[in-house]
Amino acid sequence: MAHTYVKIPEIYKKMKAAEAEKRVLFISAPVGSGKSAAIEYYLRRQDHLFLTGIDGRLNEMPEGNEINQPFIVIDDVSWIVDPDSENYILDLIDICDRKGKTMILAGRSRLPSWLQPACIEYGFILADERDLLFGEKQIKKIFQIHGIDLNESDVFEIMNETKGYPVSVTMLTYHMQDGKDYSVDIYKAAQLDMYRYFFRTFYAQWDNELKEVLLAVSVFPSFTVQLAEMVTGNVNIRRVIERAFSVGSFLFCGADDSYVMRPLLRGFLEWRCGIEYSKEWMNEIYGRAALYYEIRNDIENALYYYELADDRERIFQFLIKNAEKHTGTGHFFETRRYYLSLPKEMIVKSPLLMCGMSMLHSLLMQTEESEYWYDQLVQYEKRQEVGKRSRKEATMRRAYLDIALPHRGITNIIKTLKNTAIMVTNKEIQMPEFSVTSNLPSIMNGGLDFCEWSKNDRNLAILMKKPVELLLGKHSPGLVNIALAESFFEKSFEGQNDPDDYKIMTLLNSGYTMADMKGKIEMCFVAIGVMVKLHISHNQPQVAKTLLMEFREKAIAENALRLLPNIDAMRVWLKLLAGNMDIDKELSVENWLADDAPNENREFYILERYRYMVKIRVYIVMGQYEDAARLIERVLVYFEKYNRTFFWIQAHLLKAILQYRLGKNEWQVNLQKAVSKAQEYKFTQIIAAEGAAVKPLLLQAQSLEWDDAYCAKVLNEVDREAQFYPDYLKERCLVEEPLTKMENTILHLLCKGNKSTDICDLYHISYNTLKYHNKNIYRKLGVKNRAEAVQMAGELGIYRA
């Protein structure tokens, strides 16, 4: 064996430490990880006693004080259930500690509960499968032992597919010994051999209950106890999970009380499902999972599993149910594939579906298709008898679209609102819920763009108060006060009758209270959003941050999770104001960009408009000017087509800032467009908010056409904002190839002086994996070692001490 074994540095170091310090080493790793081979290799020239608990008890128990060997190895500790064997091992640990002997315990599962007190008392050294994984160097060497020379590309592919799992790599060597080149087919053949190996070595020993449960949950990327109970009908899931932990390292704990199956085991069990169970059984499992998600109102997952279960009727009913919701709570975009696959003859029979299709196409910026389905709904309405339920349903859905279709904007909306309010008053129809804010922190720039109303905000607040309250129901409490406050804040330039900030804050607080008591949390978010901007304008960023974070906690407590993406985008904006890009325990701008920001290159969705605007700013700070320019052009197409005035102004300001930094003369044209439009509505804050980023443009712009008084007001507010937040949108000096999230995290830990072993323990990675990340970090930074990387991180502004 010794001449074919490839030494793994991580496990070798831990065994060396256990020998030097005379401590117990506990190795926990699943079958095929190579723990027995590693122990045998290390002790190949050492005298040692070997015991095993494979049968549930130790095969022998020699008198502890009479054992002369310096090393004692006990394998299959996880299988031991015999109390005498357990007590014997505990006594032996004490003897080894007193006599300076080294004990190595190995098992397929985590540390048994009966060993945990001893682990704490004697300070076990712990190792797991990560310490036994092959790196690229070991993979290349083991193939060389079998007479196979791999090129670097094959080594990388094999490492990527096998994750360095020893038995998987070994199986591959058997299939390539006859001179075959590595390929996907070779890997699949080796994988089947590995699955058969698993079947013989552990699966055949499982009891039926454990098999049934793990087979059922193997079809899910992760599962909770409740999901497992639903799909299996077994009420003892916690007991089964505990047994799974006790017999092998098959599961690990995921997020939100979920469990994740190790990929190799999951692949094996899915293979066994295909052998042991029928398609009908799989459909039953998927159907139960879909019901589980339906109960929890998780529409996307419910539809996904109903589709896997081939339950077309349930999918249809689900789409009907979703179409009843407004765009703030409905999952139109996420479920578009299902809607768009519905046959026309099915849609035209349902006013609800025609309404949903019209709204969906409008959200997809397919206005012609949206109007087509609107016309179909109108024709359906005309065909129904007056007074019939079907007629009322069609009238209600048509009236809803008249108000809510995004691409129509607010043209003739006052007349439409009044007429619809009359129908509601006369009890001709009962209106569904509207999305006033689309989950954005704004009414003026929420579901529709109401900038035009801002020109006559006081009068409209009086004129439209009753119709709005009548139509919006629970969305109306607090709306008028909050809308007025937002309009006053954004303008802050109307002469002597200007409302002061105290009055604005009074309106916001009263509106928030009304919405919180009788209305919707979405309206509370608008009030908080305007409050945050008001505090920012007074150089109170910490107050703004605290206010936003407390509201975030409220949203989570009230299960308003749909608000979190825009709340977090606003948190990113606060960080940009402060010029704070560092990773912290709360939120990292770079991590937000990599993991949470919407991907406009994969799909463009108009309801993500707020986050797109924040993303443009992040792109500018990161020096990703091409990405920023591309996204600006995309959003401008939408803003112009859908008359989104507020965002149109912001986009042209950001476009001017970007062009200015790129040295393009067109920046003055776009600045003029933004300034002219903002002046038309008397908006000052929209320009002032860009502070330090827009100030040099305003100072260098030649012959801007704007009113002198308005100009003075804007320049004063911009200058104040620039003084408060001088680092806003300040360009960072960046590396050409961005660091990944993990590389960024590791670099910050290196800069803070963390040891390599601490980083490995913190993120549960092997030393080889850490070396791999370090190598990439050094290459991207253009340095040779850790000290140079730390220095470069400081110079580039990636890390601040």
Automatic annotation (TrEMBL):
Q: What GO biological process terms does the UniProt entry carry, in alphabetical order?
A: regulation of DNA-templated transcription
Superkingdom field:
Bacteria
Keywords tagged on the record: DNA-binding, Transcription, Transcription regulation
InterPro entries xrefs: P-loop_NTPase, Sig_transdc_resp-reg_C-effctor, TPR-like_helical_dom_sf, Tscrpt_reg_LuxR_C, WH-like_DNA-bd_sf, WHD_MalT
The HTH luxR-type domain, residue ranges: 737-797
Repeat as a keyword of this entry, yes or no, is no
- Note whether Nucleotide-binding occurs among the keywords: no
Q: Name one GO molecular function term.
A: DNA binding
PANTHER family the UniProt entry points to: DNA-BINDING TRANSCRIPTIONAL ACTIVATOR DEVR_DOSR, HTH LUXR-TYPE DOMAIN-CONTAINING PROTEIN
Q: What is this protein called?
A: LuxR family transcriptional regulator, maltose regulon positive regulatory protein
Source organism per entry reads Hespellia stercorisuis DSM 15480
